[in-house]
Predict the 3D structure of the following.
Amino acid sequence: MSRKRELIATLFPRGLPLSESINNNAAFVSLRRSRFSSCKEFSGRDALYAYIATMADEPIDYLEFGVWKGASIDTWRRLNKHPDSRFVGFDTFEGLPEDWNPDHPKGTFSTQGQIPEIDDPRVSFVKGLFQDTLRQFLALTRLSNRLVINVDCDIYSATLFVLGTLDKYFEPRAIIIFDDFYSMNDEFAAFVDYDRSFGRTWQAIGRLPHCIKVAIEIRS
């Protein structure tokens, strides 16, 4: 048995990605049917955001992971006008720290370090890898409003880190949006591993067709 394992490790040092993709695809379809089939479906991202904003018509702490040019955070600060709301975007602004898929190699989504300019004192940005910045931010910041988390991390490791690090701050009614839920080996796989490990109770509240993007609400 040990020789077989050594042989497999030699032939496939990074495992069997095709097998992983097949397994994740099956899990994705199963979860889509069992947990997302009855929630509201929207044709586009802005419509999904607008619906969620009506559910969270109160001061919010909006944390976005993966900002790029700032379109999503700009939309959210327009949707939620409460003066006590805060909108914080986390990004390296140097592009993906590793390859995501063949069409999005390391460095994709770079703004050459330029942070978006949004004229709203409620909006701020934290520059750097999530693994380097999020814990320090949480140590220095009191999250007192309803949480709305926008997960646009793209890659598995970043998504899982964000979810695991924020878990103890997820009170009932916290909302989590996944921008690339259809990315089965990355955002979806990270959510499944987080869900298995932390055992939260949650409800699907919105999706785009085929669950390309989804939103959930933490219940307990």
